[in-house]
């Protein structure tokens, strides 16, 4: 299974997600790159204009130490949007360098 993201700069975004997920770029077709080796295969395709508004899908990650993982991703260039909590679940919404939202949930150490 591959989830594909539209991107203005797919090579840069693929590199970022490869580092964020512990994967690697396994295919580079110039306008489409594939990152594999992480928890899911991610594709990045070149588009002329980004999709307007909030993305309709996003990736959710689970971390043993949510705060530590969020700090690592922010160090790579992610930005924190918000923290949320409901009984039994805590998560942080972040954006990647192109503004695509994703979440990290996990124990609050």
TrEMBL record:
SUPFAM superfamilies: Glyoxalase/Bleomycin resistance protein/Dihydroxybiphenyl dioxygenase
Family matches, as Gene3D superfamilies: 2,3-Dihydroxybiphenyl 1,2-Dioxygenase, domain 1
Pfam families in the cross-refs: Glyoxalase_6
Highest taxon of source: Bacteria
Domain called Glyoxalase-like: residue spans: 3-104
Protein name: VOC family protein
